């Protein structure tokens, strides 16, 4: 196949040089067609644009030189069994030594007489400069051939794009392939409508594609990036808003907004709802009555989300519908079951607990065991009931016949399809309302990007009378004082949590720069965590608190084992629970009053706040000790935010701005285009795009008014679903 026949939709193995091996590598990067390759963007640029003569070099500077190779030789180093490729290059002003490691093939392609462009950091031994593993590009093989135009260089002597690699496919190879098909960008017609290009001053597609890969300056690269960030954000907002609109047109269970009932419910509570709780409940009541609910209820740990969900359940039940509440663990499911029974006592309501290990039912004030079979039967009849369980509720294929509301505790994404699936026996095709509760406060911009299809209710106020948790940053050297304090509290009858340092999982981004021994896989990370927690457990049990009962919790334990330990802790059979970060999600151990976090500097503020929220759930004064590994000024300044603020949203904002979206969100978020990830700090832009997406949909909800734009959008949606 000749070059001119290559088209954008061709598989990349039509590109010269891409065989089955590279094809596989590219598949790992989700690059399948030539078009995909053009849209595989660099994550940064290496600045090799400073071109110097050899006699002008300065140690430590990153530069490019153009030189002719005088000699090149391969040898084996005696110390580390490695190959060393050593060359000498000269220009009209001098000569310099070049070394590469292990790339034996270099001696085949670089010969004396070859003219090279070399880019890298200048190093020095003794008085002599040298370049170690520089990037290089062959300019000509024959000594006297004219030097090709420097502007044609791709790997050296310019701003060089750096791509995410995968094993067997280097950034350099990716760069070469992209450069070889870049001319095809002219086959892509502009798909953004003119009014958007003008309004936001965006580069046209052809120019943007050229400049994002091979910019002449960082400003050019920025402008190109801006266009792609804008379009990805716009597409993703359109997608989310379309889901939202579609959701609003579904047939839904109409739940009566019975305010008398709610008044009775509130009157019987042992406390008054906070204003934030009232507002959230009010939003939910109206929503349940007027349109299908797809709502995220966000509120700090202990802000009282459960009670709001109980109110919603009560209304749903009284309208004759069933409710399903899903908790992440069995212990949490039981905790919810208890709360629901307690707060719904004045009403005649059927509540069931259904986990993998047991079934219970509470009916008319009576409570007892019930076989799962019997429970499943009740659920399949159209009797109103509130069923509380773990995610087994969906997996077990339990057939609700009149499900009105699904409540999901602790962030579980739940689409329309999943809601439909729950309803296998529903006759009138109504989609149950969804209430998703999350104790991870996320800043509004992130909420728009990640949950932009949902409505948001926020509880940003804590119930009155809570004693603030006393937070202290402790130098490792003084850890004995903490141990002493813990002992005294335990003697008073309290319990404590110890959190072990986080093991960081490094991700290979660019193998040119990261040494393999710095990398640690997820499996290794888990192993290392288990090791750390065992060590800590041993130390506490054998050396520090031999007379106390200590338990251990980590991510490699089965969920039944974890539940077992949590039960023991709840029953005070354990005084101290040592854990990795798995403890994070919402368990209520009222008697626990101390949270000790070792290696506190390795966690983000949001996560520390989550840990802290495990204590302070009762009348007892609670304490949180942050023990950083590193006691530097910078670390302490960051951790001080924990003392200053007790507001999860505030801490999340600070955390996000300090660590950036990637770190803040934790591991790679699948399905989120890389460019969007990198734009998450730009609040103004995200809000702006959200509004623009609304305008666009107002003008034409089908988007078909702009045919190319519509096609590009469809393509975007298809890709996000695959990811
Ligand atoms: P979370 O938002 O973390 O799920 P919960 O709903 O578990 O919080 O509430 C934490 C505790 O506070 C519970 O024991 C609950 O009964 C209690 N609570 C909830 N709302 C209030 C309130 N307005 N005043 C006092 N206590 C409350
Ligand atoms: Mg909760």
Short recap of the structure:
With 723 residues, the chain is an alpha/beta fold. The protein is built from 24 helices and 23 strands.
Strand order of the largest sheet: 13-12-11-14-10-15-16-9-17
Low-confidence residue ranges: 506-520
Heteromolecules bound: adenosine-5'-diphosphate, magnesium ion
Radius of gyration: 31 Å
Strand content: 15-25%
End-to-end distance? 31 Å
Number of discrete helical segments: 24
Q: What's the quaternary structure here?
A: single chain
Structural class: alpha/beta
Average pLDDT figure: 88
Overall 3D shape: globular
Helical content, roughly? 25-40%
Instruction: Give the beta-strand count.
Output: 23
Biggest sheet: strands, sense, closure? 9 strands, mixed
Describe the structure.
The longest helix has 31 residues, at 218-248. The strands form 4 sheets. This protein has a 9-stranded mixed sheet with strand order 13-12-11-14-10-15-16-9-17, sandwiched between helices. It contains 24 helices and 23 strands. The protein is 39% helix and 19% strand. The chain is an alpha/beta fold. Bound molecules: adenosine-5'-diphosphate and magnesium ion. The site of magnesium ion (MG) has 4 residues, from α10.
């Amino acid at each position: 196949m000749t070059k001119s026949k290559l088209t954008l939709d061709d598989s990349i193995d039509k590109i010269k040089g891409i065989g089955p091996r590279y094809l596989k590598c590219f598949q790992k990067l989700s690059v399948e067609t030539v078009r995909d390759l053009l849209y595989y963007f660099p994550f940064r640029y290496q600045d090799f644009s400073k071109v110097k003569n050899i006699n002008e070099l300065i140690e430590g500077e990153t530069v490019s030189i153009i030189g002719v190779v005088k000699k090149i030789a391969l040898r084996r180093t005696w110390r580390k069994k490695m190959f060393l490729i050593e060359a000498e290059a000269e220009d009209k002003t001098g000569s310099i030594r070049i070394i590469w490691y292990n790339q034996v093939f270099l001696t085949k392609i670089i010969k004396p007489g070859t003219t090279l462009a070399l880019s890298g950091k200048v190093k020095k031994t003794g008085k002599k400069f040298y370049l170690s593993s520089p990037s290089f590009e062959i300019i000509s093989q024959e000594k006297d051939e004219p030097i090709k135009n420097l502007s044609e260089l791709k790997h050296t002597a310019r701003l060089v794009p750096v791509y995410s690699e995968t094993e067997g496919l280097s950034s350099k190879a990716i760069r070469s392939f992209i450069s070889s098909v870049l001319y095809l960008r002219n086959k892509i017609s502009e798909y953004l409508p003119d009014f958007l290009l003008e309004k936001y001053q965006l580069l046209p597609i052809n120019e943007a594609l050229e400049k994002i890969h091979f910019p002449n300056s960082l400003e050019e690269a920025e402008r190109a990036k801006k266009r792609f960030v804008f379009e990805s954000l716009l597409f993703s907002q359109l997608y989310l808003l379309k889901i939202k609109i579609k959701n609003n047109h579904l047939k839904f269970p109409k739940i009566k907004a019975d305010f008398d009932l709610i008044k009775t419910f509130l009157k019987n509570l042992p406390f008054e709802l906070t204003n934030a709780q009232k507002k959230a409940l009010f939003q939910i009541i109206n929503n349940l009555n007027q349109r299908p609910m797809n709502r995220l209820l966000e509120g700090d740990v202990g802000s009282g989300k459960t009670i709001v969900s109980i109110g919603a359940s009560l209304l749903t039940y009284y309208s004759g519908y069933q409710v399903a509440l899903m908790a992440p663990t069995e212990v949490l499911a039981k905790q919810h079951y208890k709360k629901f029974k307690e707060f719904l006592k004045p009403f005649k309501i059927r509540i069931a607990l259904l986990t993998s290990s047991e079934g219970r039912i509470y009916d008319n004030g009576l409570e007892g065991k019930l076989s799962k079979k019997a429970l499943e039967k009740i659920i399949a009849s159209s009797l109103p009931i509130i069923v509380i369980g773990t995610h087994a509720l969906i997996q077990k294929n339990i057939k609700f016949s009149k499900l009105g509301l699904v409540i999901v505790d602790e962030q579980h994404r739940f689409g329309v399809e999943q809601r439909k699936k729950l309803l296998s026996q529903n006759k009138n095709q109504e989609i149950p309302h969804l209430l998703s509760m999350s104790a991870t406060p996320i800043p509004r911009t992130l909420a728009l990007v990640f949950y932009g299809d949902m409505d948001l209710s926020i509880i940003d106020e804590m119930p009155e009378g809570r004693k603030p948790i006393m937070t202290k940053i402790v130098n490792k050297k003084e850890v004995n004082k903490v141990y002493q304090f813990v002992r005294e509290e335990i003697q008073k009858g309290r319990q404590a949590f110890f959190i072990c340092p986080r093991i960081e999982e490094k991700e290979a981004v660019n193998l040119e720069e990261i040494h393999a021994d710095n990398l640690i896989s997820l499996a290794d990370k888990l192993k290392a965590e288990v090791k750390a927690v065992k060590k800590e457990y041993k130390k506490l049990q054998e050396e520090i608190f031999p007379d106390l009962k200590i338990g251990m919790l980590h991510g490699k334990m089965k969920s039944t084992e974890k539940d077992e330990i949590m039960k023991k802790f709840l029953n005070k059979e354990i005084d101290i629970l040592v854990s990795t970060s798995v403890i994070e999600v919402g368990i209520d151990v009222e008697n626990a009053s101390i949270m000790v976090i070792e290696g506190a500097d390795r966690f983000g503020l949001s996560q520390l706040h989550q840990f802290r929220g495990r204590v302070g759930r009762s009348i007892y004064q609670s304490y949180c000790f942050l023990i950083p590994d590193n006691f530097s000024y910078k670390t302490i300044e960051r951790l001080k935010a924990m003392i200053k603020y007790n507001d999860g949203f505030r801490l999340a904002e600070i955390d996000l701005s300090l660590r950036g979206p990637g770190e803040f969100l934790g591991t790679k978020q699948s399905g989120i285009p890389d460019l969007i990830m990198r734009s998450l700090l730009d609040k103004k832009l995200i809000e702006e795009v959200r509004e623009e997406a609304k305008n666009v949909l107002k003008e034409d909800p089908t988007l078909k008014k702009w045919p190319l734009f519509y096609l590009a959008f469809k393509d975007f949606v298809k890709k996000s679903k695959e990811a």
